[in-house]
């Protein structure tokens, strides 16, 4: 055996060579969902992991690598946020497929149940088995609102906590949820008693303020001692900035009413800057930086502004829980005993959530007696002073999202997850030291969920991004001691005797001193060899190793040294050990090296390994320089090319270690170019090259050596002949024949270069390569031109005679070398034609076409005209490009090729117009258009290029319309189309497409498309896209789309393709296109389809089927009986009715048929669907025999009857002629009357518009006199009350005011109880003495009392409305809301008024005010009777002045009538003088005198009655200007009246109906009159005089036509203003008020809920709720919204307009006749148009997006804030209490009879209120 020599090297630091091992951790991932919650089985031995995800639940085996055990699909489901479960199509038509997000995932450890809550079905929960998540243990079947647990919005937070109540077997669930509806933010739910998941009879956090303002974002909840803690953040609405802050809330476990609720703010502050971290991201309880007690560790993020999107800057803060409890206790104590004040001055504690309570001054023993509060203690309490903590660790790299805390071996470690998927391991020292000792990337850029859980042993942590289980420490990754200690992992340490890295409990002797080295202790050091006695030794020698700190062994233990498997004893010394190397005979063969390791009992002692005995041939690189320069004494064999330990090589020269130099090459001498087929010499210049020489005996006396040569793809050995010449070597390369590379190739010689650095890995490098170039002249140079253009360095020449010539190397040419090239040869031209103007680019291809472009510059001519060469496109010899205008081409070879020149032209184009978007296909005709190269032909229309195909092109888009010229370019030539232009039209547009449904199979339904400019479209198409893609059925007819039932669930997209324009059906059609199930038709003869159907002539054929009208209208259905048409009359879902021809049609074919085939077949065609439903046989009755005698009798009788009829006809004709003459006479009169009325209307309208324009200009400065909200509310809520509660102060003695006010505050809190309020209202309505007036008054008082909580007010309104619907459904639902007979109806009126006040001011108010002013102006133009209130110009026939009164217009300076009374004149002058001010700011008319200043005659005070008044009998006439003979242009003035005559000094609103002036003024038997004597009215009762509601005598009297025209004239004049008002009210062009949409949707829901499908009933409900309750009230009373003066004659006109509006809102048609009211006849033609407006208004509202509760509540909250200062509720509450006092016993009885009210102690609370408000003695 060959003896090998070895070298020895010792690597003391082995960890440098240690390989890093990649670990595979248990992992569970799914790409089709999103993980949201994670919980563990309470029994660690089971190890089950439960995952809550979107639409899924997963059960994993945590002990088996997170293996999936079970999966349960929870969604998507059909749901809608606005729908209450159970959600079915009938009660929730708006339901859509909705994903179910897991909102809660909790474990009940006692019951071993898994509680899951989703975001669908209003957040309902289920109980499932922990053993199998598929097993549902409990699910609410008929849930109520108190069982809606989680938030039904995926973005709203929900947390939960399962707690066992102390002292009992009861288990409850605490739930915190963000704002989504009127659900409490914190509540306690039943888990072990019914009703499950409900907070009835438990507790909830009551918020008296706006829920939307307190939008809690819950983070977590936990229990400690006897308390439950909630952590959340929300806006601080008490601060100006309204920034988000983090809060902690605490409540006692035993507190069933949340009396102990206290919340305090938490602040995490940076210790180095003023930065505050406001947003809590995650928190967990554990030991922080000390051992004194438990701490709350939370990760916070900063924020700016008022949004809750956390920024990336984050921090970890530690709050001691004992300090938190102290802070909370201090807040509670201050609020209990010191009114929340510190030192009696600064308020620290207060009552939160706008609850009407306050901190008190209770006895000090209250703290001990009621540590968890009671019903008499204030709550909920809050602190203004936050508890602050300094951040212990901060980062801005990524937002922290999760935290988990572990305490092991007295050390606290926090695991922090961030938004980039990194897990930070943070050591928390006892002295406050904090250090991040490791970062692990779990999943890049995937946030770590806040559910970061440690298992029960604390050895593994569950991380949820996709779900991963990892050990808390990866100690096993560290394979040696240094790696273990340098990791600085608090969990890890080095097990000295076991030689591995692990946790202390994993080491067998970890508790002993020196046996476990803690990784986090920087003073610890690994055992290491401090010193070796020998570093170069041979086998069999001893080596001493100095090792400090060797652990002591037990008695039966000893150290050993191992050389691989060979063991030698280790001798223990005071400083280390001594080991002996084994004998050579005991060693195995060595290849690359061996490891020397000391071991103890087969366990590694310490990480020192000795690498010894390495072979030169395997360990040293195969390079001479590396071999001989190594320290191991290796030698190099030149000819064997190996490194060896031998001193001499078996053959060839040996280069010895460190004694000789290696041969190397410096450069190549002379040229490195090698032509083929030529023998050349190559001389290499270098050093020590003589060592390659080997003496050999051969015939040439030369020495040879084979060297591999590589060039191109050839590898072969080339013989080099070696000559020694000093230090140089010359190689002779033999000829290389038949090698034709595509280009000059490099021949590579692999030799060693001098001074080249040695690469220890590669045997050679590119730097050690010498290259030569091998080339072949003939390759790529097929002709003379290319040969002569070769690089001169190659020496290529054109060699040979005329027959055979080639390009060769100069020395290889055996024939004549040609110095000139042959004549050029042309092969072809492209193109062969061009326009006469020239400019065509022609490509000439051939050979020997010159060596450069200048050679042929003037050699090519066309028709003897030189051609310009394009230099950039010239290629040597093969082709050249020229521009030409010739007829023929001539080269130097005298070769001719024909080139044709055409004078082409354009003749026509079709079509002549198209859309500017382009895409139209054009055809251009002309002569010789195929001229020049096709690529150089271009079509331009108006400068826009056109895509062509043989002069058929597609237009491109243009940026303008109109006419454009057509031009075609042929290279440089242009041709214009003369006399014709192309017209770019506006783009076609589709405005409407219908219908939007079709059948699944075959289709065939015609879609009608409407739009603009559709006639320019050339290829209209319709494209249907189904997602996911549906494969059509086989055997489908061409042109149809056949789809199966699976297409019904597919998403359908339909587009119209108009050339280059695409239109989406869902946009132009207003709804998405859908495919419905195919219709089914059953045979006519259902009993036996093989027999004919017998049809009786004159009757209707009825066909039964299914789905007939889903996607088809009756006019689209074609029914035939044979060749005859059966006209479809009706098409329903299940029936088709058609009317056939009277006679039996013939069959459609000419062939003869027998039996059944002779009968016509009944077929129905619906689109592409054809149905054959059997044959039809007409039943023809046989003629019955009729006796002859009877026939004669019938004939005689018929003759007599005919004679009588003839006589009657003659008489009728005579009478009809007379009637016709009378009719024509009346018709002429009516036409004249109509012309007169029309002319009058035009004139009146022109005058009115002029006046209104003047008034509009006046309004620019002053504006419309709207009432403020307080006055508006007062007049709406309390019409008919002299003093409303909004104006009064609390009328109680001052001594009792404070007590009464406290009682009223308690009453306000009691009204917040929905149960009490509904009981209170129903109890009052049940009392007989509770009149309708009382109902309206109480409803308005409640409106004022609840005005600050409009969300709650709306909720009460919905509840009462539901009760009202149930009441009327049992009777007649159409009568609901018709009158104000209940409290809820008045509440609805007030609610609508509150919500629409802004709409009135901003939208409809202007039109209404213009109408009011137009009416007032038009009425005041004519005489108005001051006593009866009748006017010449009016719309009300009962207020029409029927007598002709002579009058004339005077200007004094206001325009008045000489027949006006003095009071009427004062009103008009006052209006003119004070037109820039509202009515309430003007002086009252009774406070002024009208003074006539007549110049020299002096001043005269004018009045309605004085000594000059005319008295005739018992009648006294009011004085007028005509009475005083005041001329036109006279000067009159208003002067103040003395106080004794001052009747009114203010314009306080006087409720009630306006009465005419002095209507009942009878004094001493004298009756007043103005224009007409009210003789007719004396017969009527006094209360009906001047009434606008007369229906008797006045209507029965005939009105002369001349007076009727006044009504028509007035109506025509006001028509524009009425239309404008109705349009403003009923327009949907602007957003419909949110309240209207919300309430209409509520009515639709109520109808659906109670099974009311009659659209007329729903229409009536909407009409009674909006037009009747609000608009009619406003239209009849403009003083409710404007600060104006109303009068009886203006009110009369408004009442007619209001009645017209009401008639327009009803569905029923009013039949008009001669006895119909004149008011209805006036607008008979307009009401149908107005009805269409109303129906469209209702329909548009229904089609708009539903208003959610959140949107409505937000709007209501805004209203409450805006009008909070306008309403004082104390007086209203006091007035409400009067009704409580009146019906006290009945209310108390009702509350005591209700079990829930008893539990809520509502009766007791009412008794407390009674005692406070009026000292009522109760049973307290």
UniProtKB/TrEMBL annotation:
The UniProt entry's GO CC annotations, sorted and at most eight, read: plasma membrane; semaphorin receptor complex
Pfam families xrefs = Plexin_cytopl, Plexin_RBD, PSI, PSI_Plexin-B, PSI_PlexinA-B, Sema, TIG, TIG_plexin
Species source reads Cyprinodon variegatus (Sheepshead minnow)
Q: Where in the cell is it found?
A: Cell membrane
Picking any one GO molecular function of the record gives: semaphorin receptor activity
Which residue positions does the secretion signal occupy?
1-22
* Protein name, per record: Plexin-B1
Lineage of producing organism: Eukaryota, Metazoa, Chordata, Craniata, Vertebrata
Q: Where are the transmembrane segments?
A: 1192-1212
Where's the Sema domain?
A: 12-474
Keyword Transferase carried by entry: no
Entry keyword set: Cell membrane, Coiled coil, Disulfide bond, Glycoprotein, Membrane, Phosphoprotein, Receptor, Repeat, Signal, Transmembrane, Transmembrane helix
State the function annotated in the UniProt record: Receptor for SEMA4D. Plays a role in GABAergic synapse development. Mediates SEMA4A- and SEMA4D-dependent inhibitory synapse development. Plays a role in RHOA activation and subsequent changes of the actin cytoskeleton. Plays a role in axon guidance, invasive growth and cell migration.
Q: How does it sit in the membrane?
A: Single-pass type I membrane protein
Q: Which family does it belong to?
A: Belongs to the plexin family.
Give GO terms for biological process. Answer: axon extension; axon guidance; negative regulation of cell adhesion; positive regulation of axonogenesis; regulation of cell migration; regulation of cell shape
């Amino acid at each position: 055996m060959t003896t090998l020599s070895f070298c020895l090297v010792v690597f003391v630091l082995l960890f440098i060579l240690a390989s890093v091992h990649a670990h595979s951790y248990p992992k569970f991932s799914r790409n089709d969902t999103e993980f949201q919650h994670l919980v563990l089985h309470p029994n660690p031995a089971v190890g089950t992991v439960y995952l809550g995800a979107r639409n899924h639940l997963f059960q994993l085996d945590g002990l088996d690598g997170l293996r999936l055990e079970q999966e349960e699909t929870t969604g998507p489901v059909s749901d809608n946020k606005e729908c209450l479960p159970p959600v079915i199509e009938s009660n929730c038509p708006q339901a859509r497929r909705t994903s179910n997000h897991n909102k809660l995932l909790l474990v009940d450890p006692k019951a071993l149940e898994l509680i899951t809550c989703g975001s669908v079905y209003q957040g309902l929960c289920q109980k499932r088995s922990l053993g199998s998540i598929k097993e549902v243990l409990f699910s609410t079947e008929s849930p109520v609102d108190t069982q809606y647990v989680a938030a039904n919005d995926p973005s709203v937070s929900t947390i939960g906590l399962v707690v066992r109540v102390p002292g009992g077997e009861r288990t409850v669930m605490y739930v915190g949820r963000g704002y989504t509806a009127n659900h409490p933010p914190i509540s306690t739910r039943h888990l072990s008693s019914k009703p499950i998941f409900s907070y009835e009879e438990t507790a909830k956090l009551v918020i008296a303020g706006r829920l939307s303002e307190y939008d809690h974002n819950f983070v977590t909840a936990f229990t400690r001692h006897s308390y439950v803690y909630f952590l959340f953040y929300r806006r601080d609405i008490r601060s100006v900035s309204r920034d988000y802050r983090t809060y902690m809330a605490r409540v006692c476990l035993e507190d069933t009413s949340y009396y102990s609720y206290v919340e305090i703010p938490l602040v995490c502050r940076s210790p180095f800057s003023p930065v505050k971290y406001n947003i809590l991201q995650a928190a967990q309880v554990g030991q922080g930086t000390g051992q004194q007690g438990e701490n709350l560790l939370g990760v916070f993020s900063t924020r700016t502004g008022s949004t809750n999107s956390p920024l990336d800057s984050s921090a970890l803060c530690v709050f001691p829980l004992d300090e938190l409890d102290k802070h909370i206790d201090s807040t509670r104590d201050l609020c209990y005993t010191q009114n929340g004040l510190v030192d009696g001055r600064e308020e620290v504690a207060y009552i939160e959530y706008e609850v009407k309570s306050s901190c008190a001054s209770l006895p000090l023993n209250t703290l001990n007696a009621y540590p968890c509060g009671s019903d008499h203690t204030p709550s909920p309490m809050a602190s203004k002073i936050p508890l602050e903590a300094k951040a212990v660790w901060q980062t801005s790299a990524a937002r922290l999202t999760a935290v988990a805390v572990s305490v092991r071996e007295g050390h606290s470690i926090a695991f922090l997850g961030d938004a980039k998927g990194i897990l930070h391991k943070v050591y928390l020292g006892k002295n406050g030291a904090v250090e991040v000792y490791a970062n692990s990337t779990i999943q890049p850029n995937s946030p770590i969920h806040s559910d970061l859980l440690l298992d029960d042993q604390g050895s593994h942590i569950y991380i949820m991004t996709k779900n991963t289980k990892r050990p808390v420490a990866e100690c096993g990754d560290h394979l040696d001691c240094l790696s273990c200690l340098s990791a600085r992992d608090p969990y890890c340490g080095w097990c000295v005797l076991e030689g591995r890295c692990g946790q202390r409990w994993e080491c067998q002797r970890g508790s002993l001193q020196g046996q476990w080295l803690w990784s986090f202790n920087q003073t610890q050091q690994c055992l290491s060899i401090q010193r070796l006695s020998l570093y170069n030794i041979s086998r069999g020698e001893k080596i001493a190793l100095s090792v400090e700190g060797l652990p002591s062994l037990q008695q039966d233990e000893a150290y050993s040294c191992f050389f691989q498997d060979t063991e030698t004893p280790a001798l223990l010394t005071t400083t280390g050990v001594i080991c002996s190397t084994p004998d050579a005979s005991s060693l195995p063969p060595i290849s690359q090296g061996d490891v020397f390791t000391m071991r103890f009992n087969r366990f590694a002692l310490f990480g020192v390994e000795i690498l010894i005995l390495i072979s030169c041939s395997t360990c040293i690189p195969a390079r001479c320089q590396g071999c001989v320069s190594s320290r191991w004494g290796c030698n190099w064999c030149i000819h064997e090319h190996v490194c060896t330990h031998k001193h001499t090589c078996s053959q060839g020269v040996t280069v010895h270690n460190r004694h000789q130099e290696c041969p190397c090459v410096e450069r190549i001498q002379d040229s490195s170019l090698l032509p083929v087929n030529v023998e050349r010499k190559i001389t290499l210049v270098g050093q020590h090259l003589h060592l390659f020489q080997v003496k050999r005996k051969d015939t040439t006396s030369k020495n040879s050596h084979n060297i591999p040569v590589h060039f191109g793809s050839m590898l072969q050995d080339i013989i080099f002949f070696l000559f020694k010449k000093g230090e140089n070597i010359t190689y002779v390369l033999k000829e290389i024949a038949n090698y034709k590379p595509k280009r000059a190739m490099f021949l590579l010689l692999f030799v060693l270069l001098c001074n080249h650095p040695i690469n220890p890995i590669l045997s050679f490098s590119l730097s050690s390569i010498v290259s030569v170039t091998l080339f072949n002249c003939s390759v790529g140079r097929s002709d003379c031109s290319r040969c002569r253009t070769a690089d001169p360095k190659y020496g290529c020449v054109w060699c040979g005679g005329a027959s055979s010539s080639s390009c060769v190397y100069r020395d290889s040419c055996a024939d004549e070398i040609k110095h000139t090239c042959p004549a050029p040869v042309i092969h072809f031209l492209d193109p062969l034609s061009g326009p006469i103007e020239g400019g065509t680019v022609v490509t000439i291809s051939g050979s020997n076409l010159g060596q450069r472009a200048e050679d042929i510059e003037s050699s090519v001519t066309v028709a003897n005209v030189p051609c310009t060469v394009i230099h950039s496109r010239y290629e040597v010899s093969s082709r050249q490009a020229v521009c030409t205008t010739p007829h023929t081409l001539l080269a130097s070879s005298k070769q001719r090729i024909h080139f044709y020149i055409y004078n082409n032209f354009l003749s026509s184009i079709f079509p002549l117009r198209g859309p500017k978007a382009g895409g139209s296909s054009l055809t251009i005709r002309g002569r010789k258009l195929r001229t020049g190269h096709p690529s150089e032909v271009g079509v331009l229309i108006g400068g826009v290029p056109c895509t062509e195909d043989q002069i058929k092109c597609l237009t491109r888009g243009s940026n303008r319309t109109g006419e454009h010229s057509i031009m075609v370019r042929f290279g440089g030539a242009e041709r214009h189309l003369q006399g014709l232009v192309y017209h770019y039209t506006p783009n076609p547009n589709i405005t409407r497409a219908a219908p939007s449904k079709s059948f699944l199979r075959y289709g065939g339904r015609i879609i009608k498309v409407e739009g603009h400019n559709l006639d320019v479209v050339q290829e209209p198409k319709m494209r249907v896209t189904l997602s996911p893609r549906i494969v059509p059925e086989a055997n489908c007819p061409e042109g149809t789309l056949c789809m199966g039932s699976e297409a019904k669930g597919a998403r359908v997209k339909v587009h119209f393709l108009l050339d280059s324009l695409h239109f989406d059906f869902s946009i132009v059609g207003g709804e998405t296109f859908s495919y419905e199930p195919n219709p089914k038709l059953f045979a006519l003869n259902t009993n036996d389809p093989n027999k004919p159907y017998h049809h009786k002539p004159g009757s209707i054929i009825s066909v039964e089927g299914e789905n007939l009208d889903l996607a088809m209208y009756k006019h689209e259905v074609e029914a035939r009986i044979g060749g005859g048409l059966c006209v479809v009359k009706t098409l329903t879902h299940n029936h088709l009715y058609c009317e056939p021809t009277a006679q039996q049609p013939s069959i459609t074919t000419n062939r003869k048929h027998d039996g059944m085939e002779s009968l016509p077949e009944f077929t129905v065609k619906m689109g592409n669907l054809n149905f054959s439903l059997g044959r039809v046989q007409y039943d023809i009755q046989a003629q019955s025999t009729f006796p002859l005698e009877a026939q004669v009798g019938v004939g005689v009788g018929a003759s007599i009857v005919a004679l009588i009829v003839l006589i009657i006809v003659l008489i009728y004709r005579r009478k009809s002629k007379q009637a016709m003459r009378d009719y024509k006479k009346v018709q002429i009169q009516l036409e004249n009357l109509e012309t007169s009325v029309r002319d009058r209307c035009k004139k009146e309208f022109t005058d009115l518009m002029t006046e209104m324009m003047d008034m509009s200009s006046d309004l620019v400065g002053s504006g419309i006199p709207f009432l403020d909200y307080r006055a508006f509310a007062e007049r709406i809520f309390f019409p008919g009350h002299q003093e409303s509660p909004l104006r009064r102060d609390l009328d109680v003695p001052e001594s009792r005011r404070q007590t009464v006010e406290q009682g009223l505050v308690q009453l306000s809190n009691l009204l917040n109880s929905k149960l009490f309020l509904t009981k209170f209202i129903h109890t009052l309505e049940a009392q007989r003495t509770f009149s309708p007036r009382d109902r309206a008054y109480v409803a308005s008082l409640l409106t004022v009392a609840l005005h600050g909580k409009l969300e709650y007010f709306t909720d009460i309104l919905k509840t009462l409305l539901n009760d009202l619907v149930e009441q009327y459904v049992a009777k007649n639902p159409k009568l609901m809301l018709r009158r104000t007979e209940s409290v809820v109806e008045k509440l609805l009126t007030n609610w609508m008024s509150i919500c629409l006040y802004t709409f009135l001011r901003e939208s409809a108010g202007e039109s209404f005010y213009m109408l009011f002013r137009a009416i007032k102006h038009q009425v005041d133009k004519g005489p108005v009777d001051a006593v009866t209130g009748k006017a010449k110009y009016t719309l009300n026939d009962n207020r029409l002045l029927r007598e002709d009164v002579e009058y004339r217009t005077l200007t004094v300076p206001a325009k008045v009538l000489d027949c006006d009374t003095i009071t009427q004149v004062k009103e008009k002058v006052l209006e003119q003088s004070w037109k820039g001010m509202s009515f309430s700011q003007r002086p009252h008319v009774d406070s002024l005198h009208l003074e006539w200043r007549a110049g020299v005659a002096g001043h005269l005070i004018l009045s309605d009655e004085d000594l000059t008044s005319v008295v005739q009998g018992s009648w006294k006439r009011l004085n007028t200007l005509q009475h005083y003979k005041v001329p036109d242009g006279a000067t009159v003035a208003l002067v103040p009246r003395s106080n004794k005559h001052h009747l009114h000094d203010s314009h306080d609103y006087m409720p009630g109906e306006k009465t005419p002036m002095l209507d009942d003024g009878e004094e001493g038997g004298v009756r007043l009159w103005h224009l007409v004597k009210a003789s007719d009215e004396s017969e009527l009762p006094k209360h009906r005089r001047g009434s606008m509601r007369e229906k008797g005598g006045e209507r029965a009297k005939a009105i002369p036509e001349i007076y009727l025209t006044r009504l028509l004239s007035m109506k025509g004049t006001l028509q524009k203003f009425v239309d404008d008002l109705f349009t403003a009210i009923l327009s949907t062009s602007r957003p419909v008020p949110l309240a209207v949409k919300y309430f209409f949707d509520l009515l639709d829901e109520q109808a659906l809920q109670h099974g009311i499908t009659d659209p007329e009933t729903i229409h009536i409900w909407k009409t009674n709720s909006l037009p009747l309750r609000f608009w009619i009230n406003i239209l009849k009373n403009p003083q409710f919204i404007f600060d104006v003066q109303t009068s009886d004659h203006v009110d009369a006109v408004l009442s007619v307009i209001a009645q017209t509006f009401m008639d327009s809102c009803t569905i029923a048609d009013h039949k008009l006749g001669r006895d119909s009211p004149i008011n209805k006849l006036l607008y008979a033609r307009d009401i149908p148009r107005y009805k269409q407006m109303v129906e469209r208004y209702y329909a548009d509202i229904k089609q708009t997006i539903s208003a959610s509760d959140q949107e409505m509540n937000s709007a209501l909250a805004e209203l409450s804030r805006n009008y909070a200062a306008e309403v004082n509720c104390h007086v209203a509450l006091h007035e409400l209490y009067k009704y409580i006092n009146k019906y006290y016993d009945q209310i108390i009885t009702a509350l005591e009879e209700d079990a829930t009210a008893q539990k809520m102690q509502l009766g007791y609370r009412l008794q407390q209120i009674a005692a406070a408000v009026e000292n009522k003695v109760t049973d307290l």
